[in-house]
Known about the structure:
Helix content is about 35%, strand content about 25%. It is an alpha/beta fold. It has two domains: about 5-110 and about 285-405, FAD/NAD(P)-binding domain (3-Layer(bba) Sandwich); about 115-285, 3-Layer(bba) Sandwich (FAD/NAD(P)-binding domain), CATH 3.50.50.
Amino acid sequence: MNKAIIIGAGPAGLSAAITIAENGVSVIVIDEYMKPGGRLLGQLYEEPTGKWWNGIKESKNLYDQAIAAGVEFKLQTPVSNIENQDGFWYVYTEDEVYTTSHLLLATGAAEVPLPIPGWTLPGVMSVGAAQVMTNVHRVKPGERGVIIGVNVLSSAIAMELKLANIDVAAITLPKMNRVTEKSGNPLDVMNSLLHVSHMAPSAFVKMGSKLMKNDFMKKMGITFYPKNGVKMWDIPIMLRKAVVEIYGEDKVEGVKLATITPSGEVIAGSEQNIEADFVCIAGGLYPLAELAAVAGCPFYHIEELGGYVPLHNERMETPIEGLYVAGNITGIEGAKVAISQGITAGLAIVNSMDGGKQEAKLLDSIKAIEETRNNAYIQFHPEVKAGKQKLQNYWNLHKKAVAIN
Ligand SMILES: Cc1cc2nc3c(=O)[nH]c(=O)nc-3n(C[C@H](O)[C@H](O)[C@H](O)COP(=O)(O)OP(=O)(O)OC[C@H]3O[C@@H](n4cnc5c(N)ncnc54)[C@H](O)[C@@H]3O)c2cc1C
């Protein structure tokens, strides 16, 4: 019997697998990591309701449900290529080639690196690596760290490091250059930061961010932003300082910080050293979509979704027969949205196999994605809905073009 294949055992892949298996269709999930859960494994935060979102527990729940439903897993198995021949997908791994008529890509996201002098020193890591060390492997990345890059992910992970009793000396900007044009610009960063102000434990920061609604107030805010930062969870968030260099003899010993103007230029002579034994680089996330590219799926660059995303519709179908996508490959959002998208992709696959019997459930699941998105605690891109609409417009254009030809 034809088995559906899912690449990626993150929240999107796991929820899709459960949905498919619970509807009586065999399914196998392939993942290169040794544990199921993907990036969900590293997540740990308190929601506004006071409930803790513990990624390890959530992953285990999903995995247990998948096993109970009869899902098969191939872990520690990277997929290096996919190909379509005569309506069948060939999924290449080191040991085996798997085939299916219905393939779901749920490969998640990757981190954007920021080149900074000294970034090859031992002790420098991506902020996601620090999250995995701390929350998944329970190993401290160091005693005192500096995070370079102020964004939703770095703010969330800084709080998680604090919970693990790790001192975060500062979250600060990278020195502006052609690569760090946006992440090194205080005004751009302030804009993005205003969207996480609801996560701030300080009423002062929450109130201050509400006042920053118009561009004039934002400019004033950044001009008079305290040079030593505003504290969130007792960590100074420095929007008027940038790291010009990470220094150390054989490993990280600290960072050289300079004061910057509101438009990001370094003020000469303002440099100071901050001691640290590890440094995290936080350049943001982008959809990990190479497998969709090798499959020949059309791509669009949509800033509001985090980069290049494979063309797909709200049913998580791509224009290529039998190829589906779900989770962060479709745009950067939190795990709950990924779970909802996985359910929709799973139902779309079953629907295609059983001649449309899941249509009503499928339509409900599409609405559920929207609701989950509206209630999301973490929002990586505030204009994600506009991004999704852009993609839907591209989809409609694509369908029209295909119909004309
Ligand atoms: C470093 C990092 C930290 C994050 N931290 C947070 C956070 O704190 N809070 C939050 O809400 N969101 C966070 N996210 C966003 C996160 O991606 C989503 O919350 C959610 O996990 C997305 O689910 P997903 O199933 O789409 O992808 P993921 O959870 O990323 O799962 C994708 C899976 O696909 C596998 N995979 C990828 N390529 C291949 C291949 N070629 N072969 C085999 N397997 C493959 C990976 O090993 C992974 O297990 C983070 C993302 C990253 C990259």
